[in-house]
Amino acid sequence: MGSSAADNLKLDFTTFYNVIDNSLTPTKHTRHAINPSTEEPLPEVPVSTQEDVDDAVRAGQEAFTAWKELSYEERAGYITKFTDAIEANLEGLTEMLGKEAGKPIPSAGMEFALVMGHLRETVKLRIPDEVVEDSEERTATIRYTPLGVGVGIIPWNFPILLAIGKLDAALLTGNTFIWKPSPYTPYTSLKIGELGAKIFPPGVLQVLSGNEDLGPKLTAHPGVAKISFTGSTATGKKVMQSCAATLKRVTLEMGGNDAAIVCEDVDIAAVIPKVSMLSFIHSGQICMVIKRVYVHEKIYDEFLEKMAAFVKNLKVAPAGDPEAMLGPIQNAMQFGKVKDLYNEIGRQGWQTVLGGLPDQQNRPAEKGFFMPPTIIANPPDDSRIVVEEPFGPIIPVLKWSDEKDVIRRANDTMMGLGASVWSSDIERASRMAKKLEAGSIWVNTHFELSPHMQFGGHKWSGMGVDWGVLGMKGWCNPQAFWVRKVIV
What we know:
Elements: H1 3-8, E1 18-20, E2 23-25, E3 30-35, E4 40-46, H2 50-67, H3 72-88, H4 90-101, H5 105-122, E5 130-134, E6 138-146, E7 149-153, H6 161-172, E8 176-180, H7 187-197, E9 205-207, H8 214-219, E10 226-230, H9 233-244, E11 249-253, E12 258-262, H10 268-280, E13 290-296, H11 300-312, H12 332-348, E14 351-354, E15 374-377, H13 384-387, E16 394-400, H14 403-411, E17 415-416, E18 418-422, H15 426-433, E19 440-443, E20 458-459, E21 462-463, H16 468-473, E22 476-484
């Protein structure tokens, strides 16, 4: 890439516009989000209207005609140039993500590392035609044809990776794509959309910012062929209901309440840092991190003590602090929900071995939506902290003794996103893990992902999948293609 081309792809992070038909489009009304580390306002962003939605859908439909006719290799070439442009702006994008999402530098950097790996690997994937029959008389083949205009409705917790996991599969398979970021985290998304406008043909990739009413405008639009949603189960049900009127294709990735079962034969020193980080990363605001830890009674006391000691040393600080490991709750609404759950500690008499309601001793910061990392020791199975998804830096550590019973307890939820078993006996751990009811199951790890492997939930955690070839097929209509070699 020459210097002039590289300069053309450099981003300015002071102004933010919708990206519609490759034009940076202002809106009559604007709004702003809040930096959760400081509670200070961030820059103004667009508030999209029905007219903006109509314009974007129309542009996407017009672009679809030519985009779907390109080969996989041609579409992959565009996506690779797009990936290179993101990489050229990585420092600014990572800083912006940290400010809006409240992610410390290591966490924001980790998200973009996953983004880059996902883009680089997904462009290598293909959906081959599947030959079911090839006889002297006929062939029968399954083809996968793109749907049309797709929409990604993206949450605030992993706003870039979760969008890219929809975007690259949609574009690679020949669809056009409208990216709707969360009102809490629109900034980095809009800037990545600007890069897309410099690379893709008009209408192929568009980004719309708005208030809470923007999602319903997109789910109800008759020109949208598919909605891919990531967010809460309650909102996912509304999305599905809205899409039913126009028979849109829908993928839903919703809440989780992931269990980790720790057996008595683990190397405690080796497991503690992994389980602890996988419970508290991004202050617990990831759908697929550990939300419930079940520890065998033979090692329970030692495990609990050492987990508390490890987590106590994780620095909680504003996202810009280079030593911060855990940042704030991302927004005031979620902060209120998390505080209400912390209030249950006193109401229910839960035993805390670390953290609790903020006071002079454990208050992480004077400003910002911060809560101290908190570990609850062996609360009842029907406690809110066990039954609900906290989406904050608070986790129960529960005791178990019987394999069959702990599997029942781990499965006793309407959620089914992920679960893990930790043991030195791989055969035993695998046997236990196969009985868990979730879309992703891990042995001796958790929240391990790959662009080649599908990602989705069971039960109320989702319908359909993103990522991998299976996720790509979700952006297509399967087509039965029959050819008679002799007319009879």
